[in-house]
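REVIEWER CHECKLIST
Item 1: Sequence provided? yes
Item 2: Single chain? yes
Item 3: Sequence as submitted:
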Amino acid sequence: MLETEPTYAAELFGDRIDLARAFTADLAQHGEERGLIGPLELERLWSRHVVNSALVAPLLVAGRVGDVGSGAGLPGLVLAIARPDAQLVLIEPMERRTDWLTEEADRLGLDNVTVLRGRAEDARPDPLLDQVTARAVSALSKLVPLCAPLLRPGGELILLKGARVQEEIVAAEKALRKARVSEPEVLVLGEGLVPEVTRVFRAKVNA
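Item 4: Structure as written out by the authors:
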């Protein structure tokens, strides 16, 4: 059974809530058969995935934002819905997933989405991106070296992480230095609003 839409979803999406509902319904209908989500995710699709992604939307600039390993469109398509003023570049290596991303962006009428098939380390966005996000891809020590080269000088990493993010930062100290990352911080989003907060690693990448 698909999780009932939580009351706070409308607050997060505002007048774009109908698009969020359509995306969630499409993902619920096709996600398992297309290998995008597991069979147990329907019961927490809104709270664990859609809302978790949407909480990041206020951190975005009205520029070019990459989503590495976009998969089912979490957070890429959700952010494209919540922030129509941002241009989302969804980077995904698997063809069946890029097919889904392209089809769903078209179905929802999201003209602020570009889908790039390929690995992050092979991507060459032109121009370089203002921000890069990623969710459930890998540890910071591996993820930062993949994402940092995609950014313009002064661009931002906005990476969704789990409860052990501080441990990841310690383990990634060498990788962060090598990638010229500065001003790292951990943001906890949704406190007092949602039952499951979103943790974000945010930092700048210097020239």
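Item 5: Key structural point noted by reviewer: The chain has a mean pLDDT of 96.
Item 6: Recommendation: ____
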